[in-house]
Amino acid sequence: METVKPATAPVLLENVGYRIGGIAVLSGISLRSDAMRIGVIGRNGSGKSTLARLIAGLLEPEPGRIRIEEVDVFKDRRAAIRTVGILFQNPEHQIIFPTVVEEIGFGLRQLGQSKQDAEAGALAMLAEFGKAHWKDAPIHALSQGQKHLVCMMSVLAMRPRLLVLDEPFAGLDIPTRMQLTRQLNASGTRLLHISHDTRDLEGYDQVYWLDEGKIRASGPPAQLLRDFTNEMTRIGGGDDLSHLAS
Ligand SMILES: Nc1ncnc2c1ncn2[C@@H]1O[C@H](COP(=O)(O)OP(=O)(O)OP(=O)(O)O)[C@@H](O)[C@H]1O
Predict the structure, then answer these.
(1) Helix (H, G, I), strand (E, B), or coil: what is residue 201?
(2) Residue 1's pLDDT is what?
(3) Of 246, 233, 245, nearest to 45 (Cα)?
(4) Within 13 Å and on the Cβ side, how many CA atoms surround 174?
(5) pLDDT at 156
(6) Where do transmembrane segments lie in this chain (predicted)?
(7) Pick from 22, 32, 23, 37: which is nearest to 187 by CA?
(8) How far apart, in whole angstroms, are the C-alpha atoms of residue 88 and residue 236?
(9) Of 8, 67, 107, 172, which has the most beta carbons under 10 Å away?
């Protein structure tokens, strides 16, 4: 017997659009998923980062509706910071404080915790990741992979229901990617991972293919990632870099 899907889902987008400078960057995006690991694949300029920011509640959809765990993440920012976390490609865009413990504690302060509780929470997070010795490390002296891990710990410390990953592994070497992926999977957090790299999404539960601001296909990763790779290889044989958006 076919199971009827409930009207709500942990990740729900209905007819979402977004325009920049009068140009439609995203349109007609409808997505509803209760999968634990959701992937979005798309090439450069397909609208991935814009979609990540919309789902994290940093931009307002127009038109359309976004609900994460039933929270309107743009309008209800107090609820949103407990609901969705986001990791960006460049940790420099995320890091504010000079030391690791201050950086991780900052998110907890945002949740309303006292200075002492936030520091204790940050130390607990470091211990959970086996990095208690990083406590007073100056962030500027860390490697790129280590900075990524600090950002990851900072976001996970806030225990979001959904973690949006906006290509956080781009530019990292294979061992670093493997270690960060392992830490993320071990966290047990629902992931929505946006990438142009099929390697990031192998083994995900459900993948959406974003193409020129629209969802072109969705399904389990095996076939969809193969179709995506074939299409990227076909496009790569031509010269569509010449084309300027207007
Ligand atoms: N501030 C802006 N002003 C004008 N156009 C923009 C701006 N930001 C994004 N765009 C355009 O919106 C489209 C989608 O951008 P977005 O960054 O969401 O794509 P992306 O898939 O994340 O790209 P990439 O993989 O290259 O980071 C692109 O065509 C881009 O040129």
Answers:
(1) helix
(2) 46
(3) 245
(4) 1
(5) 93
(6) none
(7) 37
(8) 26
(9) 107
- Name the DSSP letter for residue 7: S
Rounded to two decimals, what is the model's pTM?
0.90
Among 41, 46, 53, residue to substitute to test ligand 1 (most atoms within 8 Å of Cβ)? 46
At 3 the pLDDT is 53
Residue with tokens 């406590």: 135
Which residue has its alpha carbon closest to ligand 1 atom 6? 20
pLDDT value at position 174?
86
Ligand 1 geometric centre to CA of 24 (Å): 11
Which ligand 1 atom is at minimum distance from the Cα of 210?
A: 21
Give the list of residues 6+ apart from residue 19 with CB closer than 8 angstroms, or none: 25, 62
Residues in the chain with pLDDT values less than 50: 1-2
How far apart CA 65 and CA 152 sit, in angstroms, is 28
Separation CA 123–CA 100 (nearest Å): 10
Buried residues in 194-233 as b, exposed as e (16+ CB within 10 A): bbbebebbeebebbbbbeebbbbebeebeebbeebeeeee
Bond from prior residue into 63 cis (ω within 30 degrees of 0)? yes
Q: What sign has the CA pseudo-torsion 169, 175, 179, 185?
A: positive
Q: How many CB atoms lie within 10 A of CB 5?
A: 9
pLDDT tens digits for range 15-45? 999 999 999 999 999 999 999 999 999 998 9
